[in-house]
Amino acid sequence: MTALTTLGQFIIEKQADFPYAKGELSRLLRDIGIAAKIVNREVNKAGLMDILGDAGSINIQGESQKKLDVFANEQFISALKSGGECCVVVSEENDEYLYIDSEISKDAKYIVAMDPLDGSSNIDVNVSVGTIFSIFRRKSKAGEATMEDALQKGIDQVAAGYIIYGSSTMLVYTTGKGVNGFTLDPSIGEFCLSHPNMTIPEDGYIYSINEGYYTHFPDGVKKYIKYCQVEDVATQRPYTSRYTGSMVADLHRNMIKGGIFIYPITAQAPNGKLRLVYECNPMAFIIEQAGGFASNGYQRILTLDVTELHQRSAIFIGSANMVKQAEEMMKCFS
Ligand code: AHM
Ligand code: MG
């Protein structure tokens, strides 16, 4: 029997990868892990409690918030506040960035951007949901952090991860030195290393896109979908189509099995639907660290300029060869 490595132990062991670090990033990751367990407990109880339904408020994107979104947002913020390593939180659920103005946090070095509960419309129907997080070092030296601290390019992330609340709950993260996955063992209440050094196959046979919007897609995307559907023995086509409506679940599956996830611009969403800062960038960092690639159809996601907290982007992400091929088809029509 191999010895169990908990998330806490692993984070401490890996601190040696950052010889000049003083343990702040490790503590920050540990704080996120603690909040994830609390959110997991509530997500698991969702069907039992009178917690479903709209909280009654509308977020900046004009979407109604579910109560569990609000709960998850509060839990992560509270863990980050009490941990003291994070000075600014950017969240899908908050219109503005939140500067943590407490004695222990005001000069903290890190910024956290997050989608506390992504795919939350799936909660009502017991389909997997997820949390996505992205971590940056602040640029300003001290005092109140600025908008510039919050609006950093994806390439400047120091860590990113996601939690999938699925048939089992997993936390997957990178600090820029590969990707590792931990499965929550409910009997001991610990995330345990279950997927060391995760890599995504270079080629895949799954495509994930909301084909219901087909008529509203750009021609390059239509061409790629048709390519996926055409029979060809040599390339093992037609590919399989899988789409849950939870980005974390779709990407997690594609990371393990190989595949591409696409949310392009559409006639209704001319800049795409997904948010660059706390959905596309962290997922792009993780997938690239696993050997895959992420693009907006024309440019690497991690190099895109960030001008707004809730900026949207198209995304093509997953197995490197699939994303490159989709990019080629986008070029045909640009
Ligand atoms: P949300 O942040 O409001 O939950 O929206 C993000 C989700 C993604 O998880 C998912 O891939 C996408 O929205 C699904 O959108 P659609 O229903 O338009 O296909
Ligand atoms: Mg989201």
UniProtKB/TrEMBL annotation:
Record: residues binding substrate: D118, G119, S120, S121, N210, Y243, K273
Chemical reaction(s) catalysed: beta-D-fructose 1,6-bisphosphate + H2O = beta-D-fructose 6-phosphate + phosphate
Subcellular locations according to the entry: Cytoplasm
Biological process, per Gene Ontology: fructose 1,6-bisphosphate metabolic process; fructose 6-phosphate metabolic process; fructose metabolic process; gluconeogenesis; sucrose biosynthetic process
InterPro entries given in the database record: FBPase_C_dom, FBPase_class-1, FBPase_N, FBPtase, Fructose_bisphosphatase_AS
Annotated keywords: Carbohydrate metabolism, Cytoplasm, Hydrolase, Magnesium, Metal-binding
Enzyme superclass (EC): hydrolase
Pathway: Carbohydrate biosynthesis; Calvin cycle
Highest rank taxon of the organism: Bacteria
Needed co-factor(s): Mg(2+)
Chain ranges of the Fructose-1-6-bisphosphatase class 1 C-terminal domain: 200-331
Record has Metal-binding as a keyword: yes
Annotated cofactor note: Binds 2 magnesium ions per subunit.
Molecular function per GO: fructose 1,6-bisphosphate 1-phosphatase activity; magnesium ion binding
Subunit-level organization: Homotetramer.
The name this protein goes by in its record: Fructose-1,6-bisphosphatase class 1
Species whose genome carries this gene: Mucilaginibacter gracilis
